Amino acid sequence: MACEPSYSCIYSNPRKRKEASQDGTLLLAPSSGKVFLVSEEGERIASKPMKPEEMGKLASGGQLLLGGWAVELVELASTADAAAAACPPAAKPAAPPPRAPGPLRAAFAPRMRLATPSAAAAEEELVLNRGEEGETPVCVERRLAAALHPHQREGVQFMYDCLMGRRRSEDDEPFAGCILAHSMGLGKTIQALTLVHTMLRCGPQKVPVLKKALIVCPASLCNNWMSEWKKWFPTGSTSFRPRVLPPTKAQAILTVRDFIHCPPEKLLILSYEALRSHADALAAAPIGLVVCDEGHRLKSSAGNQTTDALRKQRSARRVLLSGTPVQNDLDELWAMCEFASPGSLGALAAFRARFALPIGAARDAAEGEEGEEGEEARRHGEAVAAELRARTARLVLRRDEAMLRRLLPPRTELLVCAALSAAQRAAYAEAVLARGAEGSASGLQAVLALRGVCSAGAASAAEDEEGCVLKEKGAEAAADVGKLEALMRLLPAVRAAGEKVVIAAQYRRSLDLLQAAFASRGWGALRLDGNVGAERRQQLVDRFNAPHATEFAFLLSTRAGGTGFNLCAASRLVMYDPDWNPAADLQAMARVYRQGQTRPVYIWRLLSAGTIEEKMYQRQLFKTQLAEEVMTRDCSVKEGRFSREELAELFTYDERCCCGTLALLQQAKGAHDPLALQREEGWRNEWVASLPDETLRAALEGDEELRSLVTYAADVRVLEELCDRQPGRETE
């Protein structure tokens, strides 16, 4: 028997648009002058005469009518597949079942076979509805299942269980959604794609669980999602294809229309902004699942336009992906859980009374005076936090960076403090004095002015928050900014070692200075900020990650590119501008420390010594503790590392200070004059010799001028250990 060519295809009844489309095969038989439409089960659905020359004009993406069915061709089967299907070995005849299959039924088995329970247990690596009697096994494609790490398999299973009502609340109510709160870099994207792919392909009732699905993400990540899809689902591996909503209005309207009315259009990737524009139109589509990337965007308990647009969609199933589900307060956690599965944590007022207020009171008591009332508040807060962790664990799956550390090379985070230049010190003192002057700028403006002095020098003291293009360029500008000059002296050692570096900054003015400093030295660097279009951002990322790339540095705006991107070609990251929100810095750090990283990673938190930047870092520690208390199972309510009074001292500056954070910890340990300790002979040599980063240590030991710029550096774990050894504090 000759091996006939065939196409995988999708077919549907155009008169019954509400019915789901089906996967099948179009068999071409030039010898008989016919084409046959065959279902996944091997049944012949329809046939029609067709001349061989007409068959030769068929192509992937083409459409035809066949016996009342609308057929869309997906791909031409390979010669090997066609031979294996149409020419089975004669020596192994099939055993005659009660209903003998025809040759077409035997020849064209579906690519993702709906196995019997026994076959699923033997052949499929991940069966999502295992243990459910009377259901068709919902099997993750074996190729995907084999590629998933154990924590990713757990995540896919968790999401499926929540969406299908297999996980329930304390009141035995089924959840409608969930939050996958894996730490950045643990592969939330591939977990979500595996779930969506599986639920669009099959289901427990022999039909797919979903007809259509949406993936909503920041605009800069749409192409990243598409790239990940192509990576895991290359052309020909699946019968449907996702679409990224085009940026132009006319094209977007047509794409939305196709998604709504065309059965083969099953998955649409779009930005939150685009969703708001097309929410009403998309509400007509039979969307069964909405996946929200960077789900902490939905953290407002009062709601917002994005939340309203998402609620307009018909889907009751929702998955939120977020590496930082708690950033500032517990209202954010409530808002995300309420959107994912309404009612899961009760009404907001009741949630605040039961959880937020006792936990807040415990923190206040920990920072106040010791006493019986304070101890009782701490005990009650600890019990309430444990109860909240237990409740949220039912619909929030949290896995922290400890999981990532087991999979990747080590990561070392260092605090690197640099002295202000003479011009910066004068400008900083002037900005502090101006705050108290009559008619001066508001407190917020004063904070912005101080931050501007630290990051971009005296010229930026009067600039707005977004920053302006600086007039000063090159080495002269770098010399006016202490930490920039220090960084420029450190980077040659990184470059000589053949390493790449990502420099993350919050403000455009910082990126302008960095870019000018790189250009003056003839160093190649790529830059991604808000001026780079969303469609071009992934191109820059791919260029930097390419093995042949000549640029050794990537200048990254934490506002425009701090989430989602994979920059694993770099093994070093410099946090140039700190953020009040620790989640923003953690997101930026995760660009290099994530799956795909093959080298030890070093992260430098570059701060101007004794300035508001150090106060911001100290405040970050306070906020990070809040997230740990409610999201980490084995973390009880702890004392705050710093008092509110200490954190409120934003406008103090002592140019003698080598590291304000270290001085604060030394003072907490009982040191009478911590600044004097930092000036003791031999102290500098001691901390330089203890640095775990060989590149940083060697650069400091070999450059005396650099040692005058870098006033202190240490592994952040050293500071944490100092904190844990404070008098009266229990060691864990």
UniProtKB/TrEMBL annotation:
GO terms for cellular component: nucleus. Keywords: Hydrolase. The keyword Cell division does not apply. Transmembrane segments: none annotated. The keyword ATP-binding does not apply. Residues 486-638 form the Helicase C-terminal domain. GO terms for molecular function: ATP binding; DNA translocase activity; hydrolase activity. It comes from the Eukaryota. It holds the Pfam family Helicase_C. Residues 169-343 form the Helicase ATP-binding domain. One of its GO terms (biological process) is reciprocal meiotic recombination. This is Uncharacterized protein.
